[in-house]
Amino acid sequence: MSKRFVTILIIVFILFSFTGCWSRREIEKLAMATIIGTDKITIDGQDKWLISANTIKPRDLASQGPLGGNGSGSDKPTVLVSSIGSTAWEAGRNLTARLPRREYIAHVNIFVIGEKLARDGVDQIIDVLLRSKDIRLNTWVLVAKGQALDILEIEPELEELLSQEIIGLVQNQPVASEAFTIDIKRFANQLITPGQDAVASCIEVFERKEGGQSQPGNSSANNSGQKAVRLVGTAVFRKGKLVGWLNDEETKGYLYGIGRARQGIISLSVHELDKKDVAFAMTRASSKIVPKVEGDEISFIIDIKAEGDLQQHDDTRPIARPDVIKAVEQKAAHEIKALVENALNKAQNEFEADIFGFGNRLHKRYPQFWKQIQQDWREIYPDIKVTVNVEAKVRRTGMITDTPAVN
Amino acid sequence: MVLEKGKVSSRQGVLLLTFTVVVSTAVLTVPAITAAAAGRDGWICTLVVATVYGLLTALVIIKLWQRFPNKTIIEYSQIIAGPLGKVVGAAYILWFIHINSVVVREFGDFILTSFMPETPLIAFIIILLILGAWATKSGLEVICRANEFIFPLFTLSIAGVFLLAMQEADFSNLLPVMENGIKPILRGSWAPMAWRGEIIVVSMLLPYVDDSDNIGKYLAYSVIIIGIILTFATVFTTAVIGELTKYLSFPFFELARCITIGRFIERVEALVLVMWVAGVTIKVATFFYIASLGTGQLLGLSDYRPVVLPLGLLLGVWSLELFESSIQSIQWLTEVFPFYAFVFELGIPLVLLIIAVLTKKGGQQKSE
Description:
The complex is a heterodimer. Chain A is built from 13 helices and 13 strands. By secondary structure, chain A is α/β, with parallel strands linked by helices. Chain A has two domains: 23-246, no CATH class; 253-407, GMP Synthetase, Chain A, domain 3 (2-Layer Sandwich), CATH 3.30.300. In chain A, strands 1, 2, 3, 4, 5, 6, 7, 8 and 9 form a nine-stranded mixed sheet that branches. Chain A has a four-stranded mixed sheet with strand order 10-11-12-13. In chain A, helix 9 (248-258) crosses helix 10 (322-351) and helix 11 (358-365) crosses helix 12 (367-373). The N and C termini of chain A lie far apart (105 Å). By secondary structure, chain B is mainly alpha-helical. Chain B has one domain (10-358): Amino acid/polyamine transporter I. Helix content of chain B is 73%, strand content 1%. Chain B is built from twelve helices and two strands, in the order αααααααααββααα. Chain B has a two-stranded antiparallel ribbon. The longest helix of chain B has 34 residues, at 326-359. Chain B is globular, with a radius of gyration of 20 Å. The two termini of chain B are 19 Å apart. Classes of the chains: A alpha/beta, B mainly alpha. Chain A binds chain B through residues 10, 13, 17, 21-23, 130, 133, 136-138, 185-186, 188-189, 192-193, 363-365, 367, and chain B through 113-120, 123, 127, 130, 172, 175-176, 179, 241-244, 247-248, 254, 257-258, 260.
């Protein structure tokens, strides 16, 4: 009898304690943030954090579903909220003053760092990113040109949410290889690895030239359609502080150099010097950075292999011949080499930032030697000799061989 | 007087049970500790040094068991050391309870840190201890069978995490190997050694294993398999997370969080939670059981079940009051636990074995 009593007691206990938990969050009580932007601003001489978050309005999103509801009054599926505090989390919690629901950040997949904060040093933000249990290590990190808040204000063009739009930009980037993308995990690793300086993707607001306004039928929605975001170039850090930007061409060179370039177009001048008349569409590329130590001399060899197709030929001279193809290959190799050297030059001489991770490779290959020079690496780095070898292959010429001559 | 009438096979009681007991907590905590001490060389700690230590412990346990095949460590320590043996036995029981309360606390701290920060710790402790007490009252056979069910779940979850994390791995993160010589590796080895030595729990279970031929073989297998699994865990966390590993509280959990296959297999860290909850339940039940059994044997009771509830209360209070913060618990696990564990895992059994050999106690019955 007493056994039955105990059993019932246990069942009752389990019934009451397992039905839910203290830390439950009901979905209708949450404000789900999709992008978070962080900025540093100065108020009365004091540095403050400005946290902004793009938060979904679930009901509106649902009603604009595939069946094409008209939306319920407001046309934006997200709300932009921001607030200020002395620490990042204080600012984040201060959002409560503006949000009737609990801010929920486990679905954030984009993290935008404002330019001023980046210039002051990202070491302050990296702890915020790593310590929170809700922020994932595979969240994308972007550095804004200007304020992060300005990025979050932009309305998406193709997608429904700005976060989807930016994620799309990030995932689409390998097609052009003109922007560098990185998540929190790799970004933090770059910052803490000796002999490596960090880089991150750059996101910027630009004025649309396509003339999105005053289209008939689109009465109110497109008034602010003048601005859009684009993901182009790279933010370069030195000792965790933003020191400058690589533009799209330099980023391409950088990506070739570290072996992150996937696809992309290289324009060449094959027949004449002053006109780019061939487009080489790369389909595959790889690179190997090999450190060499002879005595006290440190040098590096970057071996790049690129493979691709002929995508465009702007001349009627024959091209589908092995010797011409050879010439195209040489030109392409030369062009890629110039791109990489340009990026290298910028990294070594202008920024003095080891974004290629030469020191790190040296560390892995020659650990004992690295120990001797680790202290002086930043002084040694700008003067290091780097040889770039490129081998380019044109595999196919597309659907035609020679360019058809026009009478 | 036989307090446990059940019998388990050596596969259930030795191979599978020790595996769950050691790996369930080690896989979450050890990579962090080895990475903090030895950086990217943490895998050497778990693979080499700890395995050697584990095999040594296994050898001592087996040798003692061969001398006293029907006795637990609580019983034969009294035969070997006389009245002092009672003290040794009591110390072991306290040690089992203490280790168990640390495990319970680790469990609570992990869930609090990573899933439910606002839930009071005591909620998890009570639930876990009720399960543990229930399993203990049901006896050894039930614990072993429950583990037989949980084992595949547990190993598949770990294997799943490894497989899915494969594409994120960059094994050049493991270079250069042994940059700072052997010292950091030895320093990082203490914790994995202490964990591997937890196979000492079988010294309480061996009398109840019925196919005794395989015990030695299975115990050695268990030590080696644990070594391989933990090495995989450290290698993968270092390869996927890189330099950052040494800053993380739960690197293996973070590894699971990094998994993204396409855009549809994401957020698989629930796998880790399943594994953790299932494995820790078995671990807590096992330690709870051997502590109760040992108490029964030490006090000469006719049944160990009456002591289960009091021990449960002791466990609950102890694990609540053990540490003030998670930092304290990590510090304890890194700095105190290994040396404390060595005494009970290898030190005392080795001394007992030496005394038994010198005084020629036991051993004769071996042929029976």
